[in-house]
Amino acid sequence: MCLTCGCGDEDGVRVRAVDEHEHHHHDHTPEHGHPHGHGQTETLELGTRVLLKNDRLAEATRTRLRARGIDVVNLMSSPGSGKTSLLERTISETGGRREICVIEGDQETMADAERIARAGARAVQVNTGAGCHLDAGMVDRAVARLAPPDGSLLFVENVGNLVCPALFDLGESAKVVVISVTEGDDKPLKYPHMFAVADLVVVNKTDLLPYVDFDVDVLGKAARSLNPHVQVMPLSVRNGSNLDHWYAWLGDLAATTAGRDPA
Amino acid sequence: MALTLDVVDVVATRTAGRRVSCVRLDVGELTGVVPEALRFCFDLATQGTGLDGARLDIRVVPGRITCRDCGATTACADRILLCGCGSADVAVVHGEELLVASVEVVKEEACA
Fold this sequence. Notes:
By secondary structure, chain A is an alpha/beta fold. Chain A contains eight helices and nine strands. Chain A has an eight-stranded mixed β-sheet, with helices on both faces.
C-alpha cells in the first residue's frame, strides 16, 4: 500500500502535546553490512507475517486500554472530509458526559491539536513528516504522552489518506471512515481496502447534497459490496443533522467493547 | 516503503547478522500490496544491512473465497468479494497473506 509514496521512515516522526517543544524520534534498526564471502546457502523457513510487530504492539495497546475502560476510535478519511470538525463538535456537545482525548496525525503542523485543545479536549499531535499513515508505535508513544484517563474516549485522527492507513492496526476498538459528499459516491470502489476494514462509514456534509451529484444510496451499496455489514451514517457537522446517530453509535461502542473478550 | 522496512527488520532479527542471499515473500492478491512497488523499495531498504544485494522472490497468492450462502469456494481477484451466486457474504480463504515465507542465508563465514 504505502510502498510507492516514499513513506515509512520514522526518522522524521514527532509526537508533541500542545504547548510542547519538538521531540525527534530516532529508532533505527541495528547497523549491519559486514563484508562476507559468498558460500553455500541454506534456507530458513520463517513464515512471519509482515507488520507482525505493528500488530502485536497494537494488540498490547488495545488490551491495556480496554482494561482501563478506554475506547479507541481510529478516524480515517481523505484530507478535508471534516474529521477535525466532527471531533470539535463531538467534544463540545458530549465532552461533559465522557472525557474525550485526541491523537492528531498529520504530516506537519500543530494546527489540528490546537483546534482540539480549543474545543476543550486533551490532544497530542503526531507529525509523520513524509509518512502517510500512523502506525502502532506512533500511537503507543502518543498514548504515553497523552495519558488518557480511565473510562475516557480516545480518538485517533489518522493522516488524511484513503490508502495506507487501512493496513495499520493502531490498537483501536473501531475503525471509522469519514467521507464527505463533495468527494463522490464512487470512492468505496476506488479505495476498496479502506472501506473493507471500516466498522462505520460516516457521510459528512449532507447539507451540501442539493448542490452535488452524490447519491448516499449508491455510496452505501458500494461500501456494502466490499463490507456487507458496514453501517453507513449520513450526517452534517455544519448543520447538526443526524449527529444524534453519531453520539448514539459512540455510546453503543462502550457497551460493545465492554462485552468483548480482550484477545 | 513501510512494509519493505518491516520485511528487512523481520529478516534482520531472525537471521541475526548472517548474510542473506534471498528473501521469499508470499503476497496475497487481495492485500492491495503491489509486488513491483515492493521490489522497487527493497533495494533501497536493504542498503547497508545484511540483506544488501539479496534477491527478492515474490509469490503472489491468488484470492480464494468461500460463500456462506451456497458453500462454493471460488477464485476472486479483487477486493469486491462476490460469489458467483450473487452473495457478498463470503469468507476469504486465501489472498490476504503478507508473509516473509523463508530466507536463504549464506552458510559459511556467518558471524554471531
